[in-house]
Automatic annotation (TrEMBL):
The keyword Transferase does not apply. Residues 17-489 form the Amine oxidase domain. GO terms for biological process: carotenoid biosynthetic process. This is Phytoene desaturase. It comes from the Archaea. Pathway: Carotenoid biosynthesis.
Length: 498
């Protein structure tokens, strides 16, 4: 077994990718110290707790349970050692702004019947679509997600070509979905996950139809204590493996070299052999490294396509919110305009698509008795002007939109409120232009076209998280941690027992 028993590692940033990498490296014997800029662990998966309300501030969907099972199995554990899961029914609810409402449930036959109501033959088309999605998921995960193919030549051999045969690798999600469904609402149902990938139907590769297998076949779950409970579980696992954690300790510079790094912090320097950065890739290169050691210049980061930022309202309200499911999406009947106002002509959306999360529908510990906890997330372009006046205007717009399109009037029942937007993402997470997620999953920013796990300009420095492969989302960042650890082991592991 490869061992890192003689290596000390500082992981900068305690997001999911950093926490995952820390577990893998500690399990191989490394002395791992995680430092985090903010007051709590989890990165974008932070929690907000106040006045008896608790909110997941970032990720709130527990998808791809197989990825979590695989992660914990690497350490001879199971997710249930740390948290329990509830299978949501419905998985989610959709409100279209022309008055239609659709619940997607764990019962595929019921969902096929709903599809059939919109378009003759759409039920069978859904089954064919999900068969293709399952194939893409199984082949894609095994051969293109868990295997990090970081060079073009990694794709041009017979084995890879055989595995890739039949996968929907090229084309857009819009074109792929149109091959199965004509009705625009059915197309939207199959594409809503693009919001979580940080793309649009026209700029996201068709390969990501695999997310429909995640959604319809693997199911949507709620972990005990929310995504924050998952972070607690991963952190506890890390402690069991010997990882140490430091919050309120940002890195301010990375100096030195492999075997003799110096990571500067306001509470004194750290001197590890190796460094893994889970901070924003652009922030690490542009702010923490000297210019001569950067792998990419400022023009590179300026030229990238970034996933949306978000306007978020965290709300504690009196009473129930029965019209809303745990996961609720509100969509305009033509949502291309919203995507255009994110990617093509950046501005605050005129007719926004948005997401409401109501964990109190499932978990009675997140709100005081007689109250509900929910948050509203509106995807918006990164880099938008974000002032108190704009926020207040948009708040009123969204609360009115919720009342109009879901029938749930919240305004007069709000007893707790906090907002989060572009400036907050930039300040709290050092994210480029206040993006909520990082680099979008466009065709030119997928797989080997994302920045690598090994730093280009500094031996012994590695990157992990949503800007690297395999990309955005909690499951992908867990896997990113595994891939980064593999690079460290390839470069520094020693044969023998720990």
């Amino acid at each position: 077994m490869q061992s890192l028993a003689d290596e000390s590692v500082v992981v900068i940033g305690a997001g999911v990718g950093g926490l995952s990498t820390a577990c893998y490296l500690a399990n191989r014997g490394a002395d791992v110290h995680v430092i985090e800029k903010n007051e709590q662990l989890g990165g974008r998966a932070s929690r907000l707790e106040e006045d008896g309300f608790r909110f997941d501030m970032g990720p709130s969907w527990y998808l791809m349970p197989d990825v979590f099972e695989r992660f914990f199995a690497e350490f001879d554990r199971t997710p249930s050692d740390y948290y329990e899961l509830t299978h949501l029914d419905p998985h989610y609810r959709l409100f279209f702004k022309d008055g239609d409402q659709v619940d997607i449930t764990p019962d595929l036959e019921r969902t096929k019947a709903v599809f059939e109501e919109y378009e003759t033959g759409a039920g069978d088309a859904l089954e064919r679509y999900l068969d293709k999605s399952r194939e893409n998921y199984e082949v894609g995960m095994e051969h293109f997600v868990y295997e990090d193919r970081e060079r073009l030549r990694d794709y041009v051999d017979l084995d890879v070509a055989r595995q890739a045969r039949g996968l929907s690798l090229l084309g857009s999600m819009q074109g792929h979905v149109e091959n199965y469904f004509e009705h625009p609402k059915l197309q939207q149902i199959m594409q809503y996950t693009l919001v979580f990938l940080g793309g649009s139907p026209t700029n996201t590769p068709a390969l990501y139809n695999l997310m429909s297998h995640v959604d319809f076949n693997l199911g949507v779950w709620y972990p005990e204590d929310g995504i924050g409970g998952v972070i607690d579980g991963i952190t506890e696992l890390g402690r069991e493996l010997g990882v140490t954690y430091d919050t309120d300790r940002p890195a301010t510079a990375i100096k030195g070299r492999e075997g003799a790094f110096l990571v500067e912090t306001p509470r004194g320097p750290l001197r590890p052999d190796l460094v893994v950065s889970n901070a924003s890739y652009a922030h690490t290169e542009q702010e923490l490294l000297p210019a001569e050691r950067r792998g990419y210049d400022a023009d590179y980061w300026e030229s990238r396509t970034y996933a949306p930022s978000a306007f978020l309202l965290y709300l504690g309200v009196e009473g129930e919110v029965d019209e809303l499911a745990h996961h609720t999406l509100v969509l305009p009947t033509d949502w291309q305009g919203h995507f255009d106002q994110i990617f093509e002509d950046p501005q605050w959306p005129d007719d926004p698509a948005y997401y409401c999360c109501v964990p109190s529908e499932t978990d009675d510990t997140v709100a005081p008795d007689g109250h509900s906890a929910l948050f509203v997330l509106v995807p918006i372009a990164p880099g938008l002007e974000d002032t108190p006046e704009i926020r207040e205007t948009y708040r009123e717009k969204i609360l009115t939109d919720i009342a109009t399109n879901t029938g749930e009037e919240l305004r007069d029942r709000i007893v707790f409120e906090e907002q989060f937007c572009v400036r907050d993402f930039a300040d709290r997470y050092n994210s480029y232009d206040g993006t909520a997620l990082g680099l979008a999953h466009t065709l030119r920013q997928t797989s080997l076209f994302r920045p690598p796990h090994r730093a280009k300009g500094v031996d012994g420095l590695y990157f992990v998280g949503g800007d690297t492969t395999p990309g955005i989302g909690v499951p992908m960042c867990l896997i990113s941690g595994e891939l980064t650890a593999e690079k460290v082991l390839e470069d520094h592991g020693q044969s023998g027992e720990q």
